[in-house]
Amino acid sequence: MSFDTLGLSAEILRAVSDQGYSEPTPVQREAIPVILDGKDILAGAQTGTGKTAGFTLPLLQRLSDSTPAKGRRPVRALVLTPTRELAAQVAESIETYGKHLPLSSTVIFGGVKINPQIQRLRAGVDILVATPGRLLDHVSQRTLDLSAVEILVLDEADRMLDMGFIRDIRKIIALMPRQRQNLLFSATYSNDMRKLADSLLKSPVSIEVARRNTPTELVSQVVHPVDRERKRELLSFMVGSQNWRQVLVFTRTKHGANRLSQQLEKDGISSAAIHGNKSQGARTRALADFKQGEVRVLVATDIAARGLDIDQLPHVVNYELPNVPEDYVHRIGRTGRAGNEGEAVSLVCVDEHKLLGDIERLLKRDLSKIIIPGYEPDPSIRAQPIQKGRSAAGNSRPRNGAGHPRGKRPGAGGSASRKARSGASASRGKPASRGNSKGAAGVNGNRAPGGKPRQRSAPSGNV
Q1: pLDDT in tens, 135-159
Q2: Which residues face 152 on adjacent strands?
Q3: H or E, element range at 157
C-alpha cells in the first residue's frame, strides 16, 4: 500500500514525497482513513511506529478541505502533548507536511517568554500544539479562544496522566465545543487511561498495531549484574572498550544524572545531562550536541524516555532501573527504530533485583544476564532500599513531573509552578533544536514518516 491510496491531497502527498517516503507504517494505514472519515479513535502503538504522522497527515487534510472565510483564523485543531520536546516535534511535523497548504500553525509551551506566543496567536492560527500548563496560562490571560476547535488530539495521553495533568486536561476540554473529533494516542493503558477514553471518545475506533507494553523485537536486551559502587566504572569501560559513539543513559534522579555526567567527563568521555532542572536552552544544546556527535553520552532522567528525536540511536543503557516497569519499555524504545537494530543494556545491582523481576514479568520473559569479567558482584553486599522516583502507574493522585505528589517530591523545594509543568519552546511552529529535522514525524526504514524516535520530552521541567 502507498500513501496515494489513503485519500490524501496532492499537496500533502508532495510533502510526504519530499521527505522520501512512499509507504505508510501499520498505524498510519489504519488511522489515516478512520480520521479522514471524522471518527474518534483510541490508538495504541509503540513509540517509533509513526503515530505523529498518523494523525498529522489526516488532520491537515480535514482542515484544508474546509478552509474558513477570510478574516481572523480561529484555532480549529488542538494537539496536546505532555512535554516541551514532544510539542516541538509535533509542530515540526505539522509544518513539514503542511508546507504546501494554506494553513497556519504554532506551538506554545512554558520555559520561554509568553509575549511572542501571544503575538502569534493574535495573528491567527489553524493548528495549535501546546502543553497543558502554558495553554491554560494563555486562557487565563484571554489570549486564546478554543471555542472553534474541530479536532482535539491527545498525544501520549498516558504520559500526561502520569504527570498529573488530568485536571488541566478536563479544564481544557470544557473550553471546547462538544461537537468535535477526538483522537487519543497512548503507548500504554491504565485504569485512569480507560476512564479518560470513556469520558472523551464517542464510539471510537480502536487501533492497536503492537502488543501493549512490548519492546520492539529489533532491540537486543541484556543485563550486566554489577555492584552499585562500580556501575560508573563499568559504564566507562564498556563505552571505551567497545567504542560506543552515541549512548543514551538513564538514571532515576536529576542529581544522579548530573553526577554521572560529570564523572564520565573525568573519565575522558564527552557527556551531557538532560533533565527538568535544565533550562530549555541547555536541553536543546545538549540534545543537538549529542545528535551531531560532539557528545558521546547523553545522561537523562525519565523525562527523555519518550520522544527524543535521535536518528538510529544504537545504544540505550539503564544505569539505574526505573521504579515503574512500563518505563523500561519506553526507555529502550529509543533504540531499534525505523527498522534499525539497537542494544539495550541494564546495569543491575543487588538493590534492583525486585525491579528487574517486575520488568521481566511485564515482558513475560527472563532477560539474558551476563557478568563482565572483572566486574563480578560481591555476594556479601546487602541490598539497600531504593527511594521511589515515581508512583506506580495508574495512581490517580496529581503528580508533579516524575510522579511525586506535588509539594512532596524529594529535592523539589515545594510544589512546582504551572510554568515549570508546561514545558517547551515557542516559535512559529519550528522547534529550537539544531539537530537533523528530516522526517520529524518519524521514519520506518526509508519508506514511511513515522519510525524516527519521537522526542520524549521532559516532563514539564520537573524530573
Answers
A1: 999 999 999 999 999 999 999 888 8
A2: 78, 182
A3: helix 157-162
pTM higher than 0.85: no
Query: Contact 97/10 with Cβ under 8 angstroms?
Result: no
Rounded CA-CA distance 85/228 in Å is 31
- Paired residues of 114 in beta bridges: none
Spatial CA neighbour of 207 closest among 4, 338, 25: 25
Q: Which helix (H) or strand (E) holds 132?
A: helix 132-140
Question: DSSP secondary-structure letter at 112?
Answer: S
| Encoded amino acid at 438, one letter | K
Distance, in Å, from the CA atom of 181 to the CA atom of 174, rounded to the nearest integer, reads 14
Grid cell, residue 436, equals 537533523
Per residue in 202-255, pLDDT (tens digit) is 999 999 876 555 565 668 999 999 999 999 999 999 999 999 999 999 999 999
CA atoms 77, 83, 85, 86: torsion sign: negative
Q: Which domains does the chain have, with CATH numbers?
A: 3-212+419-449 (3.40.50.300), 219-396 (3.40.50.300)
Alpha carbon distance 362, 374 (integer Å) = 31
Q: Is the dihedral of CA 57, 59, 64, 66 positive or negative?
A: positive
Phi-psi label, residue 38: left if phi above 0, alpha if psi -120 to 50, beta otherwise: left
Q: Helix 231-241 and helix 254-266: axis angle, to 10°? A: 50
